[in-house]
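Re: Re: token formats

Sure, here are both.
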Amino acid sequence: MKKNLIFWMLTLSAIMVFTACSKDDDDDGLGDKNAGSNNTWDVAVTGAVLEKSATGAVITGYVNLNLIEEDYSSYEMGIQIGHEGDYDSSNSWGGKEYAHGLTGNKFTITLTGYASGLKWYFRTFVRVNGKYYYGEVKTFYTDEIANTLANLVTAGNATDITSNSTTIPYSVNPDLWTKDADSSIRLLRGGVLLSNNKSLLTEKFLNIRGIDGIYGHLDNPDDFIIELEDDLDESGEFSFMLDGWFSSHSTYYYCAYTLYKSGKYIFKIGPVMSFATK
């Protein structure tokens, strides 16, 4: 089995600042907000996620043109949507999906071709005379297949720890992907990620940077990420033996990961574990 070691040592040149959305993350955008009669309390009202798939969703929204005070001859409406790496405090994040017609004050949009395994932010928008009205921000995940991918590689407890070396065991089960294969998703590789900075081992950080950005600059020149790569073509129990990479009396962090492509490159990681050198 091919196993490669890729050393990511340079760090982040730009930081994106994220704000929490007004909808609790565990709500997942499901269910209309019970306020007003037929969602009529604002010009633009964000609706619900009616259905989800690995690469899309069916989303509703509400538009109440009677609340617009100025005269207008035309308007646009739809869903503003962006993934976790797009979303920020401005009004320009993500992209727009346009609705074409209302049933009463409600529209429905079917989203397709979106990347699996990401958290998506969305809200209703209405544009009248160049002015935008927005509903509240809600979220949902396209994660069904991605959750399977996250279990392809499992990391174990580090062993044989010395002042500058350790062995990290891991297991691979490619049958999980064969069983649930999807033609829209291409599995690239997996293995173990290791770092001296726990905050770098998050899906948010990895997916914001993307496959190109992760090899760029990190904020702290002393930080590093090591990619212990496996081609995932063989089932079994394996291990990576690392010697000379560490400082004594220091703590290091690691996790299993998979990298796949579904429209864009996406990392899925397992629980972050740690060990301390002697």
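Second one below.
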Amino acid sequence: MNIEVKSKIKYSGKEDEKFEFITECEVIDHGIYKEIKYREPDVEDLPSSDVSIKVYNDYIQIKRTGAINSDIVLDEKNNSECEYETPFGHFNLFVKTKEIRINELNISSIYMLSFDGSEPAEHVLDIKVFEEEKRQ
């Protein structure tokens, strides 16, 4: 299986940041949720992290371990808070999910994220899991 991740961060008064990649993933069915596991590619000065996305009926939990450690819940019904650890420092993240759509393992979400009193930035996240096409 493969996963395509597209992320865009919209800052007030600044240029948008975009991050896109396709990589191999593993999907595990735990009954009440499905879990997607993959290794995130290196980004600029940060080495890659392992990612686990638990997909429930109406929310998801994204856990990163490695160079970045975090455990974010995207849920329209509840705001969430988590610790965000990087080689550059430790922050408290505050997450308010504006919208989340889950169709099997295809996920689309818009959420506001701020840390330690910063102005919230809008994040747009699109995730698609698919089987690798056979090449002839």
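The first strand starts at residue 2 and ends at 10. The domain at 2-130 is CATH 2.40.128.20 (Lipocalin).
- S.
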